[in-house]
């Protein structure tokens, strides 16, 4: 029996791309994309920059600490002893991030090139998801985005343990550049509940649906639960773009996705408020969605 795995979708497909993307969001909440437009050379350069930033002294990395959970620098701690993270919380503020860490001109150039490339890809994904839903427009235009860089300090003691525990993402989509040398990402199958490994495929990126995607799609998309698992004592890096939501209005399902068979499931949601509820109530696996259900759902 063949091992189950998530779809791999060709972003240069001419016919039916939007429908295929929507189907993957509904059935898996996770898929890989190939021919996505980000050069492999740029991906390799961004990984090298990421590694160099984590090599900075802790006191320098802490210049980007943020009061909001999930923002800024996150150091290793008793809850996540193998994990360390850095983030550019508004991708338009890349220069501020670079200034705080005193990065070189070359590193700054790579970071900004990577942000532009992955933001363009996000825009393309948003347009195709709209097309696949029978809608038109740039879905993610004017939305907040965060670029997060992650380092997993795996060692002999961490083998057989999680780098990051089971969770859903508090975003609409996450576009992930995973480590080509160290696997570990696992997602929960929607039907069986089994963990499915998302092993690296050269030149591809991983896309995850998060809680905001489930709200916008009126429950059609699967906000996929996932974790990172340590199989071997090797340092692992990943780089992810999180597409959160509109910056100046609440998120809700378009009227075209609401009908007699699909009544509106969620009230309009302020994305920042949703993230605050998730973190403050420690509801990291999608349970916070139930707090925003409509009375008719």
UniProtKB/TrEMBL annotation:
It comes from Tagetes erecta. InterPro entries: DIOX_N, IPNS-like_FE2OG_OXY, IPNS-like_sf, Iron_ascorbate_oxido_reductase, Oxoglu/Fe-dep_dioxygenase_dom. One of its GO terms (molecular function) is oxidoreductase activity, acting on paired donors, with incorporation or reduction of molecular oxygen. It holds the Pfam family 2OG-FeII_Oxy. The keyword Magnesium does not apply. Keywords: Iron, Metal-binding, Oxidoreductase. This is Fe2OG dioxygenase domain-containing protein. It comes from the Eukaryota. Residues 143-245 form the Fe2OG dioxygenase domain. Belongs to the iron/ascorbate-dependent oxidoreductase family. The keyword Transcription regulation does not apply.
